[in-house]
Amino acid sequence: MPDWTSEAEVQLDAEALLKLTHALMGVYIWEWFLTVDFDWELITGKRPFRWPIAFYFANRYLLFFAIIGILISFDTTTKLNCQAIYVFNQLAGNACVGLASINLSLRTLAVYGNSKLLAIILVIAILGHWSLILQAGVLLRAVWSDQSNQCIIVFTNNTILAATLIYTMVFDLLVFLLNAHKLFPRKGNIGYMGGSRLGRLLFGDGLVYFFIAFLSNLLATVFMLLNLNSIMTVIFNVPAAIASTIVACRVVRRLSTFTNEGPEMLNAVSETQLYRKSRMPSVLQATSARNHHSGAGVHVQMETYTHSEAIVEHGSASNHTGIDLGLRCDETKVRSEYDVEAKAIAL
Questions:
Q1: DSSP H or E segment with residue 330
Q2: For residue 202, is pLDDT > 80?
Q3: Which end of the chain is more exposed for a tag (fewer CB within 10 A), N or C?
Q4: What is the pLDDT of residues 42-60, one digit of tens each?
Q5: Is residue 299 within 8 Å of 256, Cβ to Cβ?
Q6: Is Membrane one of the keywords (predicted)?
Q7: Band of residue 65 on the pLDDT scale cut at 50, 70, 90
Q8: Separation of alpha carbons 209 and 163, rounded Å
Q9: Most confidently modeled range among 114-128, 135-149, 258-272
Q10: CA 123, 124, 125, 131 torsion: positive or negative?
Q11: Which DSSP symbol is given to 202?
């Protein structure tokens, strides 16, 4: 077990933090280049801009500038206003975590059909979260050191920072459990969303994103509470902010760009099963339709049901020994009970 408070260990941890931050900057820039086309479509008007996207943009680009600020504070050899840049880095980094939680909360609210009760609960939770985030300016004090030729932190308020991380972790766990509770019973359920592509999208990688956000903040919280030294206390704060932002923005993009490729059965059936069902008095077939007037933030995805009635046509001629059966389709389009994206558009 190393002596975490020794000067040599602190210096070693500081170098590790510096390298980790540079590596994460590369990861985030790579993620940005892979997905910048979505942002460009919103900017150029190819996708109509809706108000939830404002949180997406703020989250995505505020983190970009926060990482730049962190690298400047690490790499600069010219004297600068250390207090100002560290306050910006702290506030921007915490705000990115808060914005990621807002994006995940909006997705959760959409899954629950814009429930007013849930909306009130989430708004109260978000306000409590930001009451801690906005205190970032008083969390630390940094000064320029002529001896080391860099900024050094002379005071930190770990109590508020730890409270912020714990609150974030619990908040992300809450939205994860809310989504799991709503989506888990639907897995494999034909009557809901389990067999549809939208159902797999929401239940599969959708819940994975929520879980990643929770784990990243859990890791940062654990090291904050361990308080090994001044570096190890905050070493996973930047990874947590980047991970939360990436997964929250992916949640927004994936649901916004989701499309169905033609008709889709909610449950895979064989041709024999389809033939047998066609001989029954009533058949339910599921197709999918898109609302091409949906906005940029979310696309309306409807599970449409076609009700087919089998009508028996009796032969009128006496020399006919068989009975001809005909099918006449009476299409009745019904909006899905669990139309998540249509409910999300109401945001």
A1: strand 324-330
A2: no
A3: N
A4: 999 888 888 888 999 999 9
A5: yes
A6: yes
A7: very high
A8: 23
A9: 114-128
A10: positive
A11: I
Q: Which residue has the tokens 């109401």?
A: 346
Domain boundaries, the chain: 7-256, 271-345
Give 149: exposed, middle or buried? Use CB within 10 Å, 0-12, 13-18, 19+. exposed
Amino acid 203: pLDDT = 55
Query: Tokens 């400047």 label which residue?
Result: 72
User: What distance in Å separates the CA atoms of residue 92 and residue 133, rounded to the nearest whole number?
Assistant: 9
Q: What is the pLDDT of residue 331?
A: 37
pTM of the entire predicted model: 0.70
Helix (H, G, I), strand (E, B) or coil at 155: strand
Contact (CB, 8 A) for 283 and 242:
no
* Burial zone of 69 (CB within 10 Å; 0-12 exposed, 13-18 middle, 19+ buried): buried
> With b meaning 16 or more CB within 10 Å and e meaning fewer, what string describes 246-266?
bbbbbbbebbbebebeeeeeb
For the chain, where are the alpha helices, taking DSSP H only? Answer: 7-43, 52-75, 82-111, 116-133, 158-183, 197-201, 207-226, 237-256, 271-278, 340-345
32/129 Cα distance (integer angstroms): 26
The predicted model gives 255-279 an average pLDDT of 44
CATH architecture group of domain 7-256: Up-down Bundle (1.20)
